[in-house]
Each structure stands twice: as C-alpha cells, then as structure tokens.
Amino acid sequence: METIFSIIILIFSVVIHEFSHGYAADKLGDPTARLAGRLTLNPFAHLSLFGSFIFPLITYSLGGFIFGWAKPVPYNPYNIRHKYGDAIVAVAGPGSNFLLAVIFGVLIRLNVAYGLFPSPFIDVFALIVVINIILGIFNLIPIPPLDGSKILFNFLPVRYLFIKDFLEKYWPVFAFILVFFLWKFILPLVHLIFSLITGIAV
C-alpha cells in the first residue's frame, strides 16, 4: 500500500515540477509549453509510462527509494528575455519540490504541536516531504538531462564548455552510477533535510 501511495505522490509531484518549468518559462517570455497544452496540472498531459510508473518501481525494488519523472515540458530558450533564463526555468522545477516539502513539513510540525490530523494523514504528509526532497536534490545534480546541468551550463564560462560536452556525451553512465551506486551516500542528506523541515526523524 505504501508503494502505491508513493507512486501517486510521485506522479503529482513530478507534474507540479514540470508545470513549474513551463510556468517560469512562460513568465520569462516563452509560450511554448502553454501553446503545447502543457501549462496544466492535468497529470495526463505530463505522465511518462516508463518514467512515472516503471522506473519508480525499479528504484524502489532495487534501491529502497522511489524516483521518477514526467515528460519534459517543451521549452525554447531563444524566447527567454533574461540573461539567466535557462537557470531560472531549470531551478523552478526542484524549487517547487522543496516548496511542497516545506508546506507539508509545516503541517507535520503543527500536528506535533496541536494534534490537528489523524496518524494516517501524517504518514502521507511524511511521504510527500521525503519524495519531494529526493526529487529536489536529485534534479539539482549537474548531470544532463537533470535540471542541475542546465543551471551549471548557464553559468559555465566559455573556456570550460568542454565540461558540458563531456557530461552530455557520457551522462547515461553517470546517471546509472548515481541511481544504483551513489544514491545511498545522498540519503543521509535527505534524512537531514527531512528532520530540519519536520522536526522529526524519518
């Protein structure tokens, strides 16, 4: 049952993530997502069979955590009216995940203080916080096609563009190593942020 709830939470979290990319781009002058019908919170406009359902089951089964993605929102950087537009659009996605984590973390803190919600609700709130922290951290890692790479490339001096070429060429290797071998070293950070936000241990 927890796995089902986790996938449902993941789906809505990645939908909000992609919507935030599109919303930020739209506000900066790029209407591509809106014209493509992707500036919506309707999950059917965003879901990917592999990224939203199959891959989360794989990561949960093999790594003990749940991770996935939705179809990337279309985006034309040439329409953006800001020097750091690529970085702003990129950070909007993980930023929305951290915002969700904080909102539901505050609800958990309020419950500790005032007992506002029954225990099953708190379990769901905790799942929302954990999953969104994972999404936020994971997407800030500077490996293509994750958002962190777009932030890095936006600020990367021209003389270091060979780093961009290298990462774009070998990103599948780095992503595989990260998901299945290095993620266990990032989990302590997830636990720390969870405790800071909610005031309780995972």
Spell out the blueprint of helices and strands.
Blueprint: H1 2-27, H2 32-35, H3 49-63, H4 85-114, H5 119-140, H6 147-155, H7 161-198
What does this structure look like?
- The structure is a single chain.
- With 202 residues, the chain is an all-alpha fold.
- It has one domain (2-198).
- The protein is built from seven helices and no strands.
- Helix 1 crosses helix 5 and helix 4 packs antiparallel against helix 5.
- The longest helix has 38 residues, at 161-198.
- The chain is globular and about 55 Å long.
Q: What value does the Rg take, in angstroms?
A: 17 Å
Q: What order do the helices and strands follow?
A: HHHHHHH
Structural class by secondary-structure content: mainly alpha
* Range of helix content: over 70%
Provide the β-strand percentage band: under 5%
In short:
With 202 residues, this protein is mainly alpha-helical. It has helices at residues 2-27, 32-35, 49-63, 85-114, 119-140, 147-155, 161-198.
Task: Summarize this structure as a short list of keywords or feature phrases.
single chain; 202 residues
